[in-house]
Hints:
The chain is α+β, with helices and mostly antiparallel strands. Helices cover 23% and strands 33% of the residues. Strands 3, 4, 5, 6, 7, 11, 17, 20, 21, 22 and 24 form an 11-stranded mixed sheet that branches. Strands 12, 13, 14, 15, 16 and 25 form a 6-stranded antiparallel sheet that branches. It comes from Anaerosalibacter massiliensis.
Amino acid sequence: MKKVIIILSIILIAIVLGHNIINNEILEKKEDEMIIIEDEEEKTISPISGIHSSIDKVDRRPVAIMFDNHPNARWQAGLSQAEIVYEFFVEHPYTRYMGIYLVNDPEEIGPIRSSRPYFVTTLLQYDPIYVRAGGSDEAKEYIKELNISDIDAITNSQNTFFRNDKVGKKSPHNLYTSMESIRRTQLEKGYNAKAIYDGFKFYEEDTKMKGQDAVQVNIKYNEENSTSYIYNEKDKVYERYKDGEAHIDEYYNIPIVAKNIIIQEVDTKSIDDEGRLEIDLIGSGKGLYISNGKTKEISWTKESKHEKTIYYDENLKEIKLNPGVTWIQITNKKSDITIK
Length: 340
């Protein structure tokens, strides 16, 4: 009888141990599966650049920042970290930049400069936090009228901005900030944490399109102001030059580069004695898309101030961009553009 009990006990222990081993294997498999799923969920694509980043960064609100581009303000800090940068005419002979940020958090950003109405019309499609230092009367009225989530250095200078004495620039060309300060101020002001907007379309992988060669791109805004790009075939990006000088990020000490270049032709006219401009961004027009050493003609439409500017190919389909940084050059019919 004792032998029977011992044998039954051994069988029972074996069954229990086997059951636990199977359960542990199933649990390990489930844990592995959960880890894989979690990894997949951790990364997603930025709707602004097509770059992979963490969900928490992609899911937050974009930031639009005004950059000074006066010769005495160069070079800019943190501009290399923007996912989209616009270059617009301002008062003759200068241009100004607006950088759109989502996944990157530059430690130093600047110099910050003032707003114009056409920058406001452009940023509306991203529903961003807007960072600036004042603006024209029309721009300030526009910002107030549209209830834009605004961080203005004129009223937030002590909390968000600082005069950078280390860069050898004089006021007003030395006003700086950081993404940490911007995000903190966003929270303090109670601005929405997320935005509602439509991003761009991107290729899943780097793609070389059909088109004319575009190894060198030159945009002559006027006799005193030009922008150039030279294609770096090894890295498959365009290195940027401003007025004949290599464009460098002042803080990170790296070249400013673009994966995509969009040239958008618009109508402009002077509206006052100071040379301020009216730039017509609502409607349609012509342009060029440049990437990976090639260029092709495109068209653009913007149906209203809140709608996204859509860029179309020759078949009237919205173009896809290669993942990476995009520079959008706003030009007019007088701009001298050469592509080789």
